[in-house]
């Protein structure tokens, strides 16, 4: 169960309530976020919801049968919006476009990409400065100095930054320069990292684990929410299956399923999903039609020269076309939704 508490609930009322819920046989965890104060009750016993609901200090009470609770749509029917300021928002009923290189490489590269994004009305830029690479000898990112450089250039142009955090110690140093912390597929179940991201008041985008289930992705988001941060975005980026013809298997089934199970926005990453440049656009558009709230893809002035993931990176011409088609496809989807 989830009990939403009133802002003015007294400590005494809260203690009484906790005791009462404990008595029924539910284990209570108190969660305080930027937006509210909740008691999450874990238990199976049937009880009279009206009896608890009438107690003082309660705003609302909900029965949530899912394993995950706070990220479930069973209690919060209205979709969650992520407002990044300056009119940039990720939300249901809208189409966010996040584009940029796999890795941040140099000042010149950042300037060129920002220019490209501006020309195409794209307000969010992705890029890694801490790169999880399968080989320890591959380029591993420019680190915090690269992020500072990027931030200074992006800020001037009102571009928001989406970048991967790999470990707890990076959260604080990245904070002033980051709009959305990306949790990569290799870290989806790094529960210490998720716990710590619960303590920040900036948005967190969690990618689906390499072999992760939909339920596991939702549980990862539950970690961050229950740690105190409601600003969450889910990202389908493909899973590892027996298929070797593509880098991953982009599981677009996950999009409507996630949207039906959770109130959180869902983004699709076709670049890592298929891993083949020429097929990224169609998978992006398929993601739009599947119901995604946004698309994140990789672009670079000269993809062949990119320090990482060049094989799945679009050049600027392809990127400009894709951004246009994402918007057109989204407009088409809106028409379908009216049917
Ligand atoms: C990335 O976004 O460049 C990345 C490493 O993604 P993932 O964690 O999905 O592999
Ligand atoms: Mn990449």
From TrEMBL:
Residues 90-330 form the DAHP synthetase I/KDSA domain. Keywords: ATP-binding, Nucleotide-binding, Transferase. Pfam families: DAHP_synth_1 (PF00793). InterPro entries: Aldolase_TIM, Class-I_DAHP_synthase, DAHP1/KDSA, DAHP_syn_2. One of its GO terms (molecular function) is 3-deoxy-7-phosphoheptulonate synthase activity. The keyword Transcription does not apply. The keyword Nucleotide-binding applies. Its EC number is 2.5.1.54. This is 3-deoxy-7-phosphoheptulonate synthase.
